[in-house]
Design brief:
Number of domains: 2
Order of helices and strands: HHHHHEEEHHEHEHEHEHEH
Helix content: 40-55%
Structural class: alpha/beta
Radius of gyration: 21 Å
Largest sheet: 8 strands, mixed
Oligomer: single chain
CATH topology of the largest domain: Rossmann fold
Length: 367
């Protein structure tokens, strides 16, 4: 493409840049909103999103509509326009959820978070062409250290989806752009909450996986939530990954939210030779683990237990019980109670979880 742009190209690129600035700000703000969600705060959060973004959405949409993509821009435009449409749906759905009937409000919130994940998936593909997204998937720690976005080490797509099969419900994979096979790579296995899916939940961890050099897999449960049969499916997924990539089998972290956190304890303690450490978030200790040998296997096992003091679904007393049971079982437990967290994913805790995990692995070496 020559440096001399036609008026049509200039108008289109200006509209794209304007939309990208709003989208990057909106996705970042919705990320903070997702962590702050709580019954007593949700209406105020919706009003804040409405106040900050709603008035600008229509003019930007009009500007994009008035500047069609020039010849040669169609592949980019298809991805960009869909990602921006997901952004607008995310904002409008969340901003207006308080006006919905009571029974529809939580589904509307979850719908907006789905659009949030889908917008990230789209913008990630074209991020290198959009200055506002240049550092969006880089941790603050990496930015402060002046670390550039690592160049790709090979021509492989960083994002992959595998459909359901065997004993699993499908899974999504993030492969760091700098991945190469000269060394083994650590792996994060992230389990979604009830009624969730791996494709969306993947985005709770991409930034940290990218910045710190981890492979990441986010499976989907076969049913609405996790059960005993999904355990076999996870092992099948790990075997699939191991055949294709160099996995550091002594550095596999199993984590999850809500039901995903509960079953990360069930599955992780059942297979201590597969998972190096566990980081359950906003989950509980499942009764099945009292009778299947998990308590005996918990002895010395590294666990980073996170729970919100304002959790309305699994009140903090459940976390205290889980903490006490694991302590009595002599697990190597780190307990994090977050005063302002409700029943939602504590994404701001990711870097601390990985620091803890790396310290454990570096201190003990291979098992």
């Amino acid at each position: 493409m020559s440096e001399e742009r036609t008026p049509e190209e200039t108008a289109y690129l200006q509209a794209v840049l304007q939309a990208s600035v709003l989208a990057a700000a909106a996705l970042g703000e919705m990320e903070r909103v997702a962590e702050a969600l709580a019954p007593e705060r949700s209406r105020g959060l919706a009003e804040a999103i409405d106040h900050r973004f709603s008035k600008d959405l229509q003019p930007i949409e009009d500007a994009l509509a008035a500047a069609p993509p020039p010849e040669g821009f169609a592949p980019f435009h298809d991805i960009f326009s869909q990602a921006f449409a997901h952004t607008t749906r995310c904002l409008r759905t969340f901003a207006t959820f308080p006006q919905a009937p009571t029974a529809e409000r939580i589904p509307r919130i979850l719908e907006s978070l789905h659009y949030h994940a889908q917008a990230q998936e789209g913008f990630y593909v074209v991020r290198q062409l959009l200055p506002p997204f240049e550092h969006y998937w880089t941790t603050q720690e990496a930015r402060d250290g002046g670390l550039p976005d690592p160049p790709p080490a090979r021509e492989r797509p960083p994002l992959m989806r595998v459909s359901a099969g065997g004993h699993h419900g499908g899974f999504s994979v993030y492969l760091p752009e700098q991945y190469e096979e000269s060394r083994p790579w650590p792996l994060i296995v992230a389990l979604h909450g009830g009624s969730g899916n791996g494709r969306d939940f993947l985005w709770t961890w991409v930034r940290e996986a990218k910045s710190r050099g981890y492979l990441l897999v986010a499976p989907s449960s076969r049913g609405d939530t996790w059960g005993e049969g999904d355990d076999v499916g996870l092992l099948e997924i790990l075997a699939w990954l191991g055949k294709r990539y160099r996995i550091a089998t002594d550095r596999v972290l199993l984590t999850g939210l809500s039901d995903g956190g509960t079953f990360s304890l069930v599955y992780g303690l059942a297979h201590p030779d597969t998972y190096r450490a566990l980081a359950p978030c906003c989950g509980v200790f499942h009764p099945v683990s009292f009778g299947n040998g998990n308590l005996e296997r918990a002895r010395g096992f590294p666990i980073y237990l996170v729970h919100g003091a304002k959790d309305f679904l699994f009140p903090i007393q459940y976390a205290h019980t889980t903490r006490d049971v694991l302590t009595q079982a002599d697990a190597a437990l780190t307990y994090r109670e977050i005063a302002d967290l409700s029943h939602t994913y504590p994404r701001s805790e990711n870097v601390q979880i990985l620091r803890w995990f790396e310290q454990i692995c570096d201190a003990t070496g291979e098992r």
